[in-house]
Amino acid sequence: MAYPQRSLSVDPRSGFCKSNSTFYSKRNPLSLPPNPSLDVTTFISSQTHGGTTAFIDAATGHRLSFTDLWRAVDRVADCLYHEVGIRRGDVVLILSPNSIYIPVVCLSVMSLGAVVTTANTLNTAGEISKQIADCNPTLAFTTRQLALKLAAAAISVVLTEDEDGEEEPARGLRVVGILSEMMKKEPSGKRVRDRVNKEDTAMMLYSSGTTGPSKGVISSHGNLTAHAARYLSDKSKRDEIILCTVPMSHTFGLLGYVMSTVALGKTVVVLRRFELHDMLDAVDKYKATTLVMAPPVLVAMLNGADLIKDKYDLSSLRTVTCGGAPLSKEVTVGLLEKYPSVDIHQGYALTESNGGGANTVFVVVEESTRRYGTAGTLTSDVEARIVDPNTGRVMGVNQTGELWLKGPSISKGYFRNEEATNETINVEGWLKTGDLCYIDEDGFLFVVDRLKELIKYKGYQVPPAELEALLITHPDILDAAVIPFPDKEAGQYPMAYVVRMSESNLSEQQIIDFISKQVAPYKKIRKVAFINSIPKTVSGKTLRKDLIKLATSKL
């Protein structure tokens, strides 16, 4: 094990240093390139590996080799520079379902020093217009169908598909290219491009907005290089076939499965859009070894385990990696019982940390010492502090407070939002995550809940995630979310939104009684509403603000 500051006295078990109240990663330090004028695309392309197939389209079986990938990146970058006029600092929007060609676009754009931003395909035209107004992209890559959502912006577009018989793009859009044609053009040979510095912005992803308006998170080439280097520093198996079920418009999919896997030489099977049985069929068909998903998908796999194993051959599956929200002990234990040959890994990161945080990936944990519910140990070169949100006091092992993170992948801040940047990242570079956490005596991070989402009942703090974890253990409950409901006497009390299993007649009182038997009196659920589905972000985080708005709309 190695620490950034070897002069410090760091507990080798927990990674905690008493002299400065800081936790240090127990993993190998990152090997970062010394050259300050290095774009992240060049860094990734310079890595040596023995991989052959980079991406597979799960629906069509079409494959993109690493050789074809880098040839396409070079050709598309050449077209963007010489034909479209994209320059360093220009913002390029990607509005597309998952595709094996998104990596081509991202790596091409960043190689020019231009900035990648993405929009969720489920967003409305109005929501996308707000993002466009904020970041002012020069160009958009999109499909013919999704181009309708860009009509009001009057933006130039490159179409990512050219199927016959498709309708014409909406009026107001200027089509300046077809991606497949760009990938076929021989480079012009004119290699003069703008010099890219590691401090230049490479990517601007918009935060999920679970507790407030979405903001553009600024990530530099240095931030993303550190993210890729983190994967390279971990000793993982290079023969993995990873099935990506999460949207590439989100940091979970874009950074983890567009960039890091390319650097490692792994194969990624891409689902255009998530559907449980399509995912399981792809595992069977392509013999996937690793699944990446959000907690609700794991719950669905647990609830339907017997039928799933009868219909699909999942024998190739070795690892399931989960992120986006805490995974309860009950769900983890259930999954290990139903899928005994599969390791369940968890991770913790934010858009603002560019993959920096904690994970259990590549950590062998014996059953006797397994930490259920942990997000894992700190990732390489990440420092952490646990801070009392009320007093600002920095705390130690097994003490709960707000998690602060620091490291080379931490974002530069929010685009054109100095106030939000100063509130989130202090002058010393510490990212205030807004998550209530603790780190135990062995250096494992546990996420208790979102600090802003704690329910204040008569002075007591109630973590919604704890109650949600209990609710989904009920055999008649498919999914659930808990929110604060305003009350004159108590201030707030826990209210549950519940998705019942089909044909279930589970009542409000039965749910209240079910929880009452398992928690302290102040944590009891006092109100229940039934709903068809819980609103979530693309990464699986519950949009409690939407449920709070729904619950209080009639007050």
TrEMBL record:
Glycoprotein recorded as keyword: no
SUPFAM superfamilies to which the protein is assigned, alphabetical: Acetyl-CoA synthetase-like
The protein's UniProt keywords, in alphabetical order, are: Ligase
The answer, when asked if Plastid is one of the entry's keywords, is no
Domain AMP-dependent synthetase/ligase: residue ranges:
47-415
Q: Which InterPro entries match?
A: AMP-bd_C (IPR025110), AMP-bd_C_sf (IPR045851), AMP-binding_CS (IPR020845), AMP-dep_synth/lig_dom (IPR000873), ANL_N_sf (IPR042099)
Start and end residues of each AMP-binding enzyme C-terminal domain: 466-541
Q: Which domain of life is it from?
A: Eukaryota
> Per the record, a Pfam family?
AMP-binding_C
Family recorded in the similarity comment = Belongs to the ATP-dependent AMP-binding enzyme family.
Record organism: Camelina sativa
The protein in question is named 4-coumarate--CoA ligase-like 4
